[in-house]
Amino acid sequence: MAKTAIFLAKGFEEIEALTVVDLLRRAGIEITTASITDNKQVTGSHNITVEADALLSDIKFDETDMIILPGGMPGTINLDACEPLKAQIRAFADAGKKLAAICAAPRVFGKMGILNGKKATCYPGNEEFLQGADPQTDEVVKDGNFITSRGMGTAIPFGLAIIEDFQGKEAADDMAKKIIFRQ
């Protein structure tokens, strides 16, 4: 079974994080919510507090197949300031392992210089941070081991793209039908 982890920072966009968690769990893809702070309770950008499954320090990255970053402000800035997380993102990029980010969060990848030569998308106005990337305006962009998406309104397509990446188009299409998405 595929193992993924989504990282929550104070000020994360709740819809972008929890929609992905919900969809992946429905699909049978293991996803761990991980707080980048020293507390499992993390408050999102709209004052919704969730309890993460784990702390960043608990994640076994060698057993993780994908790192996922939700956007939101100041969540994205807080993710970008988390050096232990960025060290793992760098290791994943260097190893060609899967990385996904939505909304403003692709800028974390861009500022690290790991999107060089890749097509990527992000929340409008954050394109300047996609250093070395070819910015796109599609809802979801997959290029190699990267999946990026634009924002809260694209959280379902983003989650479905992750499902497709692990389980194939038929599984993603089946999930879309099950949740009555764009019928």
TrEMBL record:
Record keywords: Repeat
Span of domain DJ-1/PfpI: 3-164
Keyword DNA damage annotated: no
Keyword Lyase: no
Any single GO CC term annotated in Swiss-Prot or TrEMBL for this entry: cytoplasm
PANTHER family assigned: PARKINSON DISEASE PROTEIN 7 HOMOLOG, PROTEIN/NUCLEIC ACID DEGLYCASE DJ-1-RELATED
NCBIfam families for this protein: not_thiJ
Protein name (database record): 4-methyl-5(B-hydroxyethyl)-thiazole monophosphate biosynthesis
